Amino acid sequence: MLLRVEDLYKRYGKEDVLKGVSFSLDKGETKVIIGPSGTGKSTLLRCINRLTEPDRGRIWLEDTEITSPKVNINRIRSQIGFVFQDFNLFTHLTALDNVRLGLIRVKGMSKKEATERAMAELARVGLADKARAYPAELSGGQQQRVSIARALAMDPKLILFDEPTSALDPELIGEVLAVMEGLARSGMTMLVVTHEMGFARTVADEIIFMERGVIVEQGPPEQLFRSPKHPRTAEFLRRITDLYGGEQ
Amino acid sequence: MTIEHWLRVWNYLPILLQGLSVNLALLGGLITVGFIIGVVVALLEVYAPPPLRLVAFGYAWIFRSIPEILLLLLMWFGPAQFGIKISPFIAAVLALGLRSSAYQAEIFRGALQAIPVGQALAARALGLSRIGAIRYVLLPQALRLSLAGWGNEFAVVLKDTTLAYAIGVVEVMRQARYIGSREFPLTLPAYITVALLFLILTYAGLFIIGKAERRLRIPGLEARR
After folding, report:
1. In this predicted complex, what is the ipTM?
2. A50, A79 contact by CB (below 8 A)
3. Which of A11, A226, B32, B140 has its CA 20 to 30 A from that of A233?
4. For B167-186, how does the pLDDT look when each residue is reduced to its tens digit (9 = 90+)?
């Protein structure tokens, strides 16, 4: 088991955002988390690399307990990729430097080695020719692909995607999803929060349906889409299919 | 004030320029002191835990509140009370530098706070420490955003260097004063000449900063005027 989340709780003020979430992820597996807005999906992802501190519960990455106070969280974070909804590329750095920064400053690679690695990752997401461009000179889709390259370069054990296509114009979503699908096929372990049902259906090994801070149901896409066990799941899937259309 | 007066002041120009070079040395010293302390104070104001943050704000409050002329006099007479001898030049660099640091801190603090929170999140998510995120991501962005405001501070402190006159630093104002006391009719032309020199200096300084701003410009990270 690569990632294990056990009974996670998080409260913001008076609102319980996570109310006892447990699940696990095997190496090479892709799980997609779906559910209505404001049900704690993003909070859950941020708890996993402790960008948000959970109130209760435990998380393990392989044999290391991430939630232990003794853990070196910077080391853990360098092993977990994170792809943000609004990309968050470093605005003062070129695409190449965005990908190189962690390699040089966190992993301690030489500049030469880091450059080679960064160029390879940019090529992998189809942006080798944009290495010298600044984020503001790239389209949203390109920025998100650079941010995926930035995560990949660190050789993460797992990548967390927090609604990676939600801030994109519709015509740019495809290029990002294509990169993600390629990653999943290549055996990367991925946990993806998304509203892209087409992606969930074709790429996910398992889908987790979350609502109001709890996991309502989880299972393989076919089962979840064809015959959801829980009426809330069926209701959500019906609504989101109306909204986004079924298959993409 | 006749043409002849002006011609005689012209003969004194080397002396005035010599005085001006002292102003430039003061400027270099005070702006460096102000920059280093200003960055530290701004970082403390934005990122330090509450007690330290309070100290930083207190510091900025004190050095923005006390009149500069008073700071100069305090820095000149203060250390002497404790048997510490510093030259008027050093006293002026420190007094003006500390004052400038408080203003520079406000410029840098504004810039740091203007950086979207996602930048820090992305830096930490990569595994950078807090210090690393500040050093490699937040501060480089903030300093670029600060350039326009910093140019303004430069124009202010350039003129402030003449206040060192008050504690006996032989800078351009004092040289002008010397000229006037030697040849009284030259008083006004000498002062006007100093004014012209500052017009030129300020223009040149802002021109260089403007150039630097264009060179350091990064698409999407323009210094906002």
Report:
1. 0.92
2. no
3. A11
4. 989 889 999 899 888 888 88
